Amino acid sequence: MNIAAHPVVASLTPVFLLIGLGYLAGRMHWIRDEAVKDLSNLVFLLLIPALLFRTMSSVHFEELDWRPVGAYFLAALTLLAVSIVWRGFNRGSVVMALAGTFSNMVMLGITLVELAYGKAGLVTLLTVVSVHALIMLTLGSIVLELAVAREARLGGERTPHVLETAWSAFKGALIHPIPLPIISGLLFAQTGLELPSVIDKPLQLLGSAFGPIALVLVGVTLALTPMRGYLRQALWVSASKNVFLPVMVGLSAWALGITGLPLTVLVVAAALPVGANVFLFAQRYEVAEQVTTAAMGLSTALALVTLSFAMTFMSWLN
């Protein structure tokens, strides 16, 4: 058998090559640190919304299977709760638990799943992505605010009501460049209309640019990520994200009767490395910033092995 023609190899190779080129660009300082933020804004505010809206603009509600969403979050939220209890309830433990359960579904997952499993696999992934940020970011914000409130009460300070915090977190996660274009695209699809070519073509070109730019940006970020001194803690977070979560998601999906391509996409999504949004939490709450950064880098590097294994195992299983 020609190894290069194997579907797992064929889909993973361009992904890791582009990440490798981005890593080289970062190490050689071809892209300045200040430019990384601008590129991130370009990807998140323009390229991703174009891709997500166009993909979902032809998907009808009756074609969607919401069981994968239930299976994924049953496992993810269970692991999140166990991780917080294991480390103790404080800001640092919540941030590290989020890092161990928050997948890089957008920057890495969308391109990888589309390459490996086509539009059918992408629809399953985007069904999860549509509520991934909403659920994880909202819940993360609430739990972190509860941790802050607990610390403040112990210090004798006054804190906002938890419902005020929950509403603020919900609005912030809903009005976001990920769920908003997915929901908008789905609503447009229900009208039965088709995008005019004069609009569809630019969206297609913008969406096509997303994959390579996002993957190169992952590599640049990896090159600029310091890991020295935090490897042990980062290794635990990476094990949770790259190994424990996909195993738990796979078992949860199997228990709910999910098989075939949806099961594969769920496991692969869970096996993706730590998503960048976790660092925003660490930065905002001024806790575990170095560990989170190290975990993102180590998790991405280890994904070369763990993600390859997950995809190969699922292709064998199916």
UniProtKB/TrEMBL annotation:
Kindly state which keywords UniProt assigns to this record, in alphabetical order: Cell membrane, Membrane, Transmembrane, Transmembrane helix, Transport
Q: Which residues cross the membrane?
A: 6-26, 38-57, 69-86, 93-117, 123-148, 169-189, 209-227, 234-255, 261-282, 294-317
Q: Name one Pfam family in it.
A: Mem_trans
What does the UniProt entry say about where the protein is found? Answer: Membrane
Membrane protein topology class? Multi-pass membrane protein
Name this polypeptide is given:
Permease
InterPro entries to which the protein is assigned, alphabetical: Mem_transp_PIN-like
Which PANTHER family does the entry link to? AUXIN EFFLUX CARRIER FAMILY PROTEIN, TRANSPORTER AUXIN EFFLUX CARRIER EC FAMILY
